[in-house]
Design brief:
The chain has 415 residues and is α+β, with helices and mostly antiparallel strands. It has three domains: 171 residues, Reverse transcriptase/Diguanylate cyclase domain (Alpha-Beta Plaits, 2-Layer Sandwich), CATH 3.30.70; 56 residues, Orthogonal Bundle (DNA polymerase, domain 1); 167 residues, Dna Ligase, domain 1 (2-Layer Sandwich), CATH 3.30.1490. Helix content is 41%, strand content 20%. It contains 17 helices and 13 strands. A five-stranded mixed β-sheet has the order 5-6-1-7-8. Strands 9, 10, 11, 12 and 13 form a five-stranded antiparallel β-sheet that branches. A three-stranded mixed β-sheet has the order 3-2-4. Strand 7, helix 7 and strand 8 form a beta-alpha-beta unit. Helix 4 packs antiparallel against helix 6 and helix 11 packs antiparallel against helix 12.
């Protein structure tokens, strides 16, 4: 059996590189791609090398970045161009394999195992793709080649820009085990903190733990991360024509002003819940796990969820769950900077529905018709043409259209 050859490619400083292609003069200054500082709705999505040298980091707020680098030029994202250039890059990938799995706009895995019969060794293909993306599109990419997806991604993250790292069975311990544990895919800040408390500082430390110990401590995720650390990932690279089913629908917002109490939080949640419900209806989905995320002014985030008996695509039912979740889990000792809501465990709307004996079906039908009518009015006359009165009480917090502004961010932004 052929040894798997999995390539991971990451477009370096993706959005910043693409902005520099559009505006070459910005290569000479510290520049970052971000949101609207006046409305405080923005974070740093990407920064160029000069901004990186000044200490600017991705995922920090614009104010934090400007405090480090007052001369920083902030450019709003131009997603139509980002998607255009990303598609050009991925068209090159697809000339070598039909197994291309995107991981956000800027990253992708390629399975080159059987491509070698046509195009030469996997290493030669990697070098050729890297050179072609630079010469034909004008972008630098970093590459990692390995026998599984996890190590391939680790390789592409190690040297930037324009790096190339090959991780084989005979050298992975030397290369991988010395890396910080947080470099492993899906080890976020909270998991890193818990690992560090147990003396697990590196990927090698994690790999040398007893699998049963990690499973007892962290459940299935602990066991999964042990497999990843040891290179036991056998997950396939998805075929280009296979789309992953939508697992959840959500929206979040960093508000222009801090949210100081539950009244203010609930009117923002109302706007978000209406957006999520409308998007569920557009997708023909219903779900029964309601989650809220709360991020305070010290940037600490908590996430809480509750499972409801009957799946829903209605804002009023989502809000019925949000109210007690908020009351039970946050006391506003610190204001909130951003909040979010999502509905998960979704299935198609036409799936058999289990009725709830404690729900007034006639009232529920009225609410459903009302929300569908609101959808129709907003489609014809715009989002702000109709709103609940409570939402109008503080337009500084609620003057946004989450459905139109919704953007899916790659997981790697939040690591």
């Amino acid at each position: 059996m052929l040894e798997r050859q999995i390539l991971h490619i990451d477009i370096n400083h993706c959005y910043a590189q693409m902005i520099e292609m559009l505006y070459p003069d910005l290569k000479e200054v510290a520049m970052a791609v971000g949101g609207d500082e006046e409305r405080r709705s923005g974070i740093i999505l990407a920064r160029n090398l000069k901004a990186k040298e000044k200490g600017v980091k991705t995922a920090e707020t614009l104010r934090e970045a400007l405090a480090k680098c007052p001369e920083l030029v902030i450019v709003p994202p131009q997603f139509q161009y980002f998607i255009y250039y990303a598609n050009q890059v991925k068209d090159i990938y697809r000339e070598y394999t039909d197994k291309v799995e995107s991981f956000g706009i800027d990253e992708a895995w390629l399975d080159l195992t059987h491509s070698q019969a046509l195009f030469g060794s996997a290493e030669a293909i990697m070098d050729e793709i890297q050179a072609r993306v630079l010469s034909e599109v004008g972008l630098t990419v970093s590459c990692g080649l390995s026998f599984n997806k996890i190590f391939a991604k680790l390789g592409s993250d190690m040297i930037k820009p324009a790096g190339r790292v090959i991780i084989r069975r005979d050298n992975y311990e030397e290369i991988v085990f010395k890396l910080p544990v947080e470099d492993l895919l899906y080890v976020g800040p909270k998991t890193k903190e818990k690992f560090n408390e147990l003396g697990i500082m590196s990927i090698g430390d994690l790999a040398k733990q007893q699998r049963s110990y990690l499973k007892n401590k962290f459940g299935k995720n602990g066991e999964m991360l042990w497999y990843f650390a040891n290179g036991y990932d056998q997950s396939d690279v998805s075929h280009k024509d296979v789309s992953m089913p939508l697992k959840s629908v959500g929206n979040s917002i960093t508000t222009p002003a801090d949210i100081r109490n539950s009244t203010e939080a609930l009117i923002v949640f109302q706007v978000l819940a209406e957006s999520v419900a409308s998007r569920l209806r557009d997708a023909g989905l219903v779900g029964n796990v309601i989650s809220i995320s709360l991020r305070n002014t010290e940037l600490k985030t908590i996430v809480r969820q509750r499972k409801i008996q009957r799946r829903t695509d209605l804002a009023f039912e989502i809000m019925e769950t949000i109210r007690p979740l908020l009351k039970e889990n946050y006391y506003f000792d610190l204001p909130l900077r951003s909040i979010g809501v999502s509905v998960s465990n979704v299935i198609p709307t036409n799936h058999t529905v289990q009725l709830n004996l404690f729900v007034d079906e006639e009232e529920r039908e009225k609410q459903s018709k009302l929300e569908l009518s609101i959808d129709a009015i907003r489609t014809k006359f715009g989002h702000h043409s109709i709103s609940q009165l409570s939402v109008k009480l503080n337009t500084q917090l609620t003057d946004f259209n989450p459905k139109a502004e919704h953007v899916i961010h790659p997981v790697s932004w939040f690591k």
